């Protein structure tokens, strides 16, 4: 399979009154055609900022992509003129944004907001765009699409608004879909429907998908590869089964151990002690050292190199051997 998207050593910083916030620092990952890459980590770790960097939607000021490459079909998106980037954004790369109630414009109907991208990128007439918009509403499983076409976002349920966001993102048949926490704040039944919908459309359209979430269950269900992010960095990267069955970074272990298990229902849930440091004052060494039970003086002073454990599975930690010796296998079983 060809590499559709390659993010190489991406650095995105925000220049604030409190100092420089290193939101994304030296992040790399890739997506093949028809593949789903999972980006997982706590809130504020840089998942959404890396996705917005791909779309070149970082507000400037205060944000700026200060380094790295974003290669899409052989072209560096960071070097494209804005006019050319506008033709890529929404057309070749679609994005489902967080919080559909705030992402959808409340003064335009759902149909108008789907039509906008079709008229802009596909050069369709108003009549053809309307037909296509209704077709997209039907495709994403919204009942009575002709009626919903003329309704406003506030008239729809949360699940339906999320489906409208998916319809907008997929209207131009993009080659890559970035789904930024598409199931957040939805009940479990609707979550399953949304994930099933994205998977079905991916199979039909052959898209590459970047699934951003903090839910490891979602990652296990839909992803082929996983990038685990913590405090602006990818701390572990590899095949989904390698990550879940053979984790090598203490943070990945902490995430897996915090999942409730049916066969261990007594006592308190496992937690990762401490708090994520602010992005303006990360430690000089490993960013996870403030919360890591294995950390020593070296971890505080020197950033760990990225080490390849097996082909395609990498981790950035000074204590890989120590972690591996203590944790041979996790109890979490992917779906």
The CA-CA distance between the termini, in Å, is 24 Å
Number of helices: 13
Biggest β-sheet description = 8 strands, mixed
The assigned structural class equals alpha/beta
The averaged pLDDT comes out at 87
- Please compute the radius of gyration using only Cα atoms: 21 Å
Uncertain runs: none
Spatial strand arrangement across the major sheet: 6-7-8-3-9-10-12-11
Order of helices and strands: EEEHEEHEHHHHHEHEHEEHHHEEH
Strand content bin: 15-25%
Number of strands: 12
* Helix amount: 25-40%
Shape designation: globular
Q: Quaternary state, please?
A: single chain
Describe the structure.
- The protein is α/β, with parallel strands linked by helices and 335 residues long.
- The chain has helices at 47-54, 82-88, 100-103, 110-122, 126-139, 145-149, 158-170, 188-205, 216-222, 240-245, 250-257, 297-301, 320-326, and strands at 3-16, 19-32, 36-40, 63-72, 75-76, 93-96, 176-180, 208-213, 225-230, 233-239, 306-310, 313-316.
- The strands form 2 sheets. An 8-stranded mixed sheet has the order 6-7-8-3-9-10-12-11, sandwiched between helices. The protein has a 4-stranded antiparallel sheet with strand order 2-1-4-5.
- Strand 11 (306-310) and strand 12 (313-316) form a beta hairpin.
- The mean pLDDT is 87.
What is the gist of this entry?
It contains 13 helices and twelve strands.
Fold topology:
Blueprint: E1 3-16, E2 19-32, E3 36-40, H1 47-54, E4 63-72, E5 75-76, H2 82-88, E6 93-96, H3 100-103, H4 110-122, H5 126-139, H6 145-149, H7 158-170, E7 176-180, H8 188-205, E8 208-213, H9 216-222, E9 225-230, E10 233-239, H10 240-245, H11 250-257, H12 297-301, E11 306-310, E12 313-316, H13 320-326
Parallel strand pairs: 3-8, 3-9, 6-7, 7-8
Antiparallel strand pairs: 1-2, 1-4, 4-5, 9-10, 10-12, 11-12
Helix pairs in contact: 4-5, 5-7, 7-8
